[in-house]
Amino acid sequence: MKLTLLSILILFFSTIGIQAQAPSKNLDIDINKKGATIAPDMWGLFFEDINFAADGGLYAEMIKNYSFEFPSPFMGWRRIQEDGAMGYHYTKPHLDDSKNKKYLQMQRLNDQGNFGMSNEGFRGMAVKGNENYRLTFLAKVAKGDNLSITAQITKGKKILAETTINQLTNEWISYEVMLKATETADGVNFKVLLEGEGELDIDMISLFPEDTWMGRKRGLRKDLVQLLADMNPGFLRFPGGCIVEGFDLENRYQWKNTIGEMKDRGTMINRWNIEFSHRNAPDYFQSFGLGFFEYFQLAADLGAEPLPILSCGLACQYNSGEMVPLAALDEYVQDALDLIEFANGSTDTYWGAKRAEMGHPESFELKYIGVGNENWGPQYIERAEIFEKAIKAAYPEIIIVSTSGPSSDGHEFDYLWKELKARNAELIDEHYYKSPEWFRENARRYDDYDRNGPKVFAGEYAAHSTTENDALKRNNWEGALSEAAFMTGLERNADIVRLASYAPLLAHVDGWQWAPDMIWFDNLGSYATPNYYVQKLFSTNPGTQIIQITENGNTLAGEEGIYASSTYDENTKELIFKIVNTNTDTRAFTIRLNGNYKGKGNGKWLELQSDDLTAAHSIKEPKRIAPEEKDISIQKKKIQVSLKGQSVNVFRLKI
What we know:
The protein is of the alpha+beta class. The protein has 2 domains: 45-61 and 219-546, Glycosidases (TIM Barrel, Alpha-Beta Barrel); 77-209, Jelly Rolls (Sandwich), CATH 2.60.120.260. Helix content is 17%, strand content 33%. It contains 10 helices and 36 strands. Strands 1, 27, 28, 29, 30, 31, 32, 33, 34, 35 and 36 form an 11-stranded mixed sheet that branches. A hairpin with an 8-residue loop joins strand 4 and strand 5 (102-108). Helix 4 (330-344) packs across helix 5 and helix 9 (477-492) packs parallel to helix 10 (530-539). The radius of gyration is 28 Å and the shape is globular. 45% of the residues are buried. Its EC number is 3.2.1.55. It catalyses: Hydrolysis of terminal non-reducing alpha-L-arabinofuranoside residues in alpha-L-arabinosides.
């Protein structure tokens, strides 16, 4: 047999274990061919009070059941009666018309030992050394002289912070003191102890870190808001989610119950309290300390458009499916109109004045409002039509978000799209919680949508990994990588996909009901997931116009495991392109910059990569997968890059 030179070389290199690398693929970007405009607020945040995301999470209140309004009024509290102390603890009714109905009376019969109450917090309580914690409460002496209160933060028998409040009176007075922690500790308790013989009435016992977001009293957790701010989100959707609907209409979210003084906000069971039998949370309630004013305020802080969602008069159709008769829908419609006035109205209006009283006389410049969440059927359509007529008559500039139901396809989805399209709906909210494979296979989902029809709000999406076998589906790299692949399709179709947000946003590591979630936290700290870093890569590198990135004239949406999108940023005069390599091996590319490219030198390359699809973050390992920044060289209008397997890559270069 005669051997050719080529066969000899192949035999030689294979013998010594050297394999020839696959040839570089040519990808083309024509800078002159700018496409549709990308909404400046395209990438945003979805917030819902699930997984203890509000009370016990973003809302920095440390005391659970701070006003004794839970159905079991001492839930979260423990009676203290030690070392010979004698007395009783009662709850008694307020006689005014506020939503704060109960208060605590401590009746002490002697002056021996420790007598009072202890609070466990939300899945525990934690403090940081040398930091101040603001304690506020209402109190009045019902009987006795020379009564005082000692407030403590303790770890076992060790006192980490302590202060005494004297000069109590027989009238309800508001008190505020600081407790300074001597060390950092988790698993601490708060104690309020009554000193002296007599009876003391006490209520609204609240404890916050002084160091909240923007230093606001009764404010938000600084570390969690900072993670949100770092994403530069375009919008903030709130308050959900299924929590909007409630498991019945009485349990629906009513925004008017969440504004004003805390005594006027009341308390309500959280619908995730009993939703999942495997993750029951009987102590999960809503104090509404994080209410609609605070949501609007947070959106303003983040530079994000507020996007509130309101009940359309249909309770969750997976639960009771309770419906308000059409003839009785006026109250619900009026709530929507009043909310727009609360957000945007002048201080001469009733609800605009309410906003000003809370500290924000300026308009919140609301542009969007959502009608219903994951509702379906003709019952939704007929209610949505009533809302639309009323809102557009009063506020024609407001963009209405409609729902396409809880699924990404099927009979109900098709029915709603048909009906809403016939009514010229502006934005239709689509949700998909699917396998990573589904996300990779659906990167072309919006390629064939009607360009003249309604725009899409990808309002809730997350890849639920198939490699996780238990209820705690971790945020692993398989899910994040697949979401990145899918998101290139959202960006390529930004003329159809107006808004997009991952869901859910937050989860307490010891209090979650649903997983995966984008950001996890405990009482001391927090960590971002790989999914967070994927979302952040897109939200901080958006661009203003679509530019196609192609191979042989075709866009890339999974061909040979490669996904890509490209944009131009008119503000920074930069070309931004994203390439996701879902293969396990490295792939080489030559990026050819066609058109009027005049840039020189280097560009920036952000790489997010892991060889392990099961890799996930934790409190102890918060950054196993995080972006790495590199330089790229542009020579003769070409960029040569080798992209690692299972990587998300973002490139930026000046035009």
